[in-house]
């Protein structure tokens, strides 16, 4: 073969060498240029196509590297033996997964909301710029699997001052989100444990732990939190609790129940408490409730925390504080796992905490949420004859328990028809209770005050029909 008729488009965004490469490859795949056929020399093809020789050489080099042609010294280029590619056809592959379009509601009282409009963009830009101003190559190397020491130190200092958590930086482990932290904890503990959950509970944690292979058991609650007598009867050796603001009921575990829970953990070797302190920063009445870990005299509490609620979900920064004996197990079983959070992100949040920006951000966000909380409570007063409010004064959602015999599903459907999304407490239950009074969760973190007033006024009408 002395020449190839290739229509090159000099105005195309695709380079000329790539057009030559594509043409020859296509002809080889389709059998138009058979095995063993000699291709024109680079000089001859360049002259024929009126392009530079280097352009043709680039195309031939690509074909050589992919095995479509072979080079014979002093003889030239020949089509390689690739029969299995002759019938190669590109098929448009369609995803088997059906992506369901989620309905967007005019008003959404999600209890998992975060007000992203209050995110400190200017401060974040400044810190990012300052940290990356110099060519700090160490920020892009693999870091400490446990998390950078400076960041862990900033967290331990903050936890002691704000939550009463007694720990050293060596006990802190950093991870990309609470799910990862739970998976790492599962690797450390091993699956020979039975884990008890409050019922209702934070379902995401329950799903993760259940999927990891743990035996799980629900434990009923009263107005003080998890029932210790019921916990004892389950045979569980680990209790997963949210004592500072139970999710989703909003119950604050009093000191008496906390001491009972710690006593349960002290009674047998191998018992532990996982304390999930997911939104302790947001309390609107009285002082923040100290963490259970601060009362622990025998190192039985595994403390979990996150910046997802207080800064932004996409930050994906969570942490846990390990008791010293579990820390030893981590060194043996889990320290080989590399950190899942970049050193750049850790450094930014470290400075965000140490330079006082985090405290100022929390004060601003707390005030913002308190205003929305107060607006919601005021707007709900007309519904006082048909429901009771609970779980207020902390967190970013409240609960409405209905006294008029309405069904939870009917309340949700009535709201849905009015283009309002509300959430039922039954979705958070491990065991379904048929006789339970209808209870609705209303979150307010990412709703404007005007929207809260409008939405509640509509709910007042539709829930009375």
TrEMBL record:
The keyword Signal is assigned to this record: no
SMART domains: HTH_GNTR
All copies of domain HTH gntR-type, residue ranges: 14-82
Tree of life domain: Bacteria
Pfam families, A to Z: Aminotran_1_2 (PF00155), GntR (PF00392)
Keywords, in A-Z order: DNA-binding, Pyridoxal phosphate, Transcription, Transcription regulation
GO MF: DNA binding; DNA-binding transcription factor activity; pyridoxal phosphate binding
Family classification: In the C-terminal section; belongs to the class-I pyridoxal-phosphate-dependent aminotransferase family.
Protein name: HTH-type transcriptional regulatory protein gabR
Species lineage: Bacteria, Bacillati, Bacillota, Clostridia, Lachnospirales
